[in-house]
Design goal:
alpha+beta, Alpha-Beta Plaits, 4-stranded antiparallel β-sheet, MTH1187/YkoF-like, UPF0045_domain, Thiamine_BP, MTH1187 family thiamine-binding protein
Length: 98
């Protein structure tokens, strides 16, 4: 499964990059496949428990420094698919190259 999530600290001012980096650091250190872009971090794992544990810890890292936290998540649950982060992007690129 892949879960794209965005964690936003509230009440800390306009510059939130250092807080978001705390969350991404947790994801990076988890060992799960992930990608971060300007809006979301996508995490890929085998189960809800595995992925949600990482997201929960990433949110907690931000929550430890911010008075309020907003979280948005979107999940793609597709049993039997591995390396979806790469294969989905490659499929789109293949169509763009036609």
């Amino acid at each position: 499964m892949i879960v794209a999530f965005s964690v936003t600290p509230l009440g800390v001012g306009e510059e939130v990059g250092e807080y978001v980096a705390d969350a991404v650091r947790v994801v990076r250190d988890s060992g799960l496949a992930y990608r971060t872009d300007a809006m979301f971090t996508s995490v890929e794992g085998e189960s809800w428990d595995e992925v949600m544990d990482v997201i929960k810890r990433a949110v907690a890292a931000v929550e430890a420094r911010a008075p309020r936290v907003s979280v948005v998540m979107k999940a793609d649950i597709r049993p039997g698919v591995t390396d979806g982060l790469t294969s989905k992007a490659e499929t789109v690129q293949r169509y763009l190259n036609q």
